[in-house]
Amino acid sequence: MSPSRSTNHGPQGPDPQQRRLLRVCRIGRAQGLKGEVNVYAYTDEPERRFAPDSQLQTKDGQVFTVVSSRRFKQRWIVLFKGVEDRNASEALNGLELYVQADPAEELAQEDAWYPEDLIGLEVRMAPGNSLGEPSGRVVGQVSDVLDGVAQQQLQIRMTTKEDDEEAEGLIPFVEALVPQVDIENGYVAIDPPGGLLPGLV
């Protein structure tokens, strides 16, 4: 479950008529010699997204067409049209692919966020937090959103109590630890356990 949402998305970019891109996957290592790649899915519909003839695109508009795909443990193995050998597949390592959201998908994203929505938000202590910190106390700022194996993590630039020096910390982006995201008012509320973030014990 996502943290509770307080507002709608922020601006979608310079062209409000352009549909938002939904991130589908990140391409990993080459698989074998025939052009297949390991793919790490961010979508809830991998069977649909990686079906033969499905088209995915990079942020700059380069289109990749799926030839075939199969699931393997926690990832997918996908063959894209025009990627015919290991050299070509190795060149795709690290590439992220997207689809343009249709109206129904845009509506479904009401309870989701994109990294650009979160970076720069103020980090405050949640009401009734387990550390006994004052509600709303500002402890840092979201500096990045990282993709972990099980879930995303917020990277937080902390200001420690002792000397006001900045330090970085990570907190899993799950409802128990990040119970509120308020894009419009520019903050996230956190309830971390002691010792997880610098300066919070």
TrEMBL record:
Give the organism the record lists: Bifidobacterium asteroides
Q: Which HAMAP family match?
A: Ribosome_mat_RimM
- What is the annotated quaternary arrangement, including any partners? Binds ribosomal protein uS19.
The protein's matches in Gene3D superfamilies, at most eight in alphabetical order, are given as: PRC-barrel domain, RimM
Say what the protein does.
An accessory protein needed during the final step in the assembly of 30S ribosomal subunit, possibly for assembly of the head region. Essential for efficient processing of 16S rRNA. May be needed both before and after RbfA during the maturation of 16S rRNA. It has affinity for free ribosomal 30S subunits but not for 70S ribosomes.
UniProt-listed PANTHER family:
RIBOSOME MATURATION FACTOR RIMM (PTHR33692)
* Free-text note regarding domains: The PRC barrel domain binds ribosomal protein uS19.
Q: Which residues form a coiled coil?
A: none
Q: Which GO terms describe its cellular component?
A: cytoplasm; ribosome
* SUPFAM superfamilies for the chain: PRC-barrel domain, Translation proteins
**Is this entry keyworded Chaperone?**
yes
Q: Which gene encodes it?
A: rimM
Q: Which GO terms describe its biological process?
A: ribosomal small subunit biogenesis; rRNA processing
Q: Where is the Ribosome maturation factor RimM PRC barrel domain?
A: 116-196
> What keywords were assigned to this record?
Chaperone, Cytoplasm, Ribosome biogenesis, rRNA processing
Q: Does the keyword Lipid biosynthesis apply?
A: no
**What is the name attached to this protein's record?**
Ribosome maturation factor RimM
* UniProt-listed Pfam families: PRC_RimM (PF24986), RimM (PF01782)
Every copy of the RimM N-terminal domain together lies at 24-102
Protein's cellular compartments: Cytoplasm
The GO molecular function terms of this record are: ribosome binding
Q: Would you identify the family this protein belongs to, as annotated?
A: Belongs to the RimM family.
